[in-house]
Amino acid sequence: MTLQLADPRALRDAFGAFATGVTVVTAQDADGKPIGFTANSFTSVSLDPPLLLVCLAKTSRNYATMTSAKHFAINVLSESQKDVSNTFARPVEDRFALVDWQAGAAGCPILANVAAWFECALEKLVEAGDHVILMGRIEAFENSGLNGLGYARGGYFTPILASKAVSAAAEGNIELAAVLEHHGEVLLIGDEILSLPSCDGKEGSPADILRDYLEELTGLSVTIGFLYSVYEGKSDGKQHIVYRAFASEGEPRNGRFLKPDTLAKAHFKTSSTADIVARFAVESQLGNFGVYFGDETVGTVRSVPAKAAQP
After folding, report:
1. How far apart are CA 201 and CA 232, in angstroms?
2. Minimal CA–CA distance to 290: which of 280, 305, 303?
3. Which among 22, 14, 15, 5 has a CA at the least distance from the CA of 288?
């Protein structure tokens, strides 16, 4: 696709296809007050000397403090710390009052229960368009052995959770389905009664089977994303596995792309489908996506601790 310089949102979305970890960058301001923010633009650079980098937007309210600080820390969040990520990504009066932490040797806040942390001396600043690159020389670090929290296409994911969910569902009669997205719209099948595109599961990779089915159905190129729902259908005796998926440009030869937030009064083939579309409409506005598992009426969204939801 040709680069559209007038469409930075499209470029941001394309960047978002790259799955990353999630970190909280911390430091102290000139008065010794802790500051921190969520970032996924973190990269290891060198083992000898030990270097890493993170990118900071010049519009960030932390820009002046971070670019003048002599030390900063990178806290790599573990898979159970989505709430910590959200705390440091949103305006909160006292973020550090909501998390457990202690000061590192250089005074930078080190968060509890992270997958790993690195305390660094600021090595250099590199101007990079509308961002600045903070390169740090690692002075101390620790690896807890916990699995990291992942982020891609606007949603959090945990690889182990996804693997376990699919393995558990694979023991039954499987139906695969997709929330197939294109420019904020979702592909739905049918005229008066709507349903998500779905197919029977077979031996092999569920993601590959579903991608092949969707490409044949729509005539478009399809990329399978992360799990969205895994639930048992008591009425049909099937295990349902629903993925997020992303379609290329073009008109589908079957189905229609519709805006999910306009379908409150639409008629769906099943109540589960209605619940999935309604949940997707809400999560799309928030920019945070979870993985539901349970049955067709009761379950949980595991990426939001202790929060019950419909599929």
Report:
1. 14
2. 303
3. 22
112 and 99 in contact (C-beta within 8 Å)?
Answer: yes
**Distance between CA 311 and CA 294 in Å, rounded?**
8
Q: Residues 302, 306, 310, CA angle at the centre, nearest 5°?
A: 65
DSSP bridge pairs for 295: 232
List pLDDT tens digits, range 163-174.
Answer: 555 665 556 688
Token readout for 29 is 């301001």
- Let me know if 194 is exposed, middle or buried by CB neighbors in 10 A (0-12, 13-18, 19+): buried
The model scores a pTM over 0.85: no
Question: How far apart, in whole angstroms, are the C-alpha atoms of residue 280 and residue 285?
Answer: 9
* Closest to 233 measured CA to CA, from 165, 306, 308, 293: 293
* Contacting residues for 140 by C-beta, under 8 A, at least 6 apart: 104, 105, 106, 118, 119
CA distance 253 to 216: 9
Query: Structural domains in the chain?
Result: 18-152 (2.30.110.10), 158-301 (3.90.79.10)
CB 162 within 8 A of CB 179: no
Cis peptide, bond prior to residue 50, ω within 30 of zero: no
Q: Is the dihedral of CA 158, 163, 168, 170 positive or negative?
A: positive
Nearest to 206 by CA among 185, 225, 231, 181: 225
- The pLDDT tens digits of the residues spanning 217-275 come to 999 999 888 888 888 888 888 888 899 999 989 999 999 999 998 988 899 999 999 99
Token duo for residue 68: 């003048």
Q: Which strand (E) or helix (H) includes residue 27? A: strand 23-28
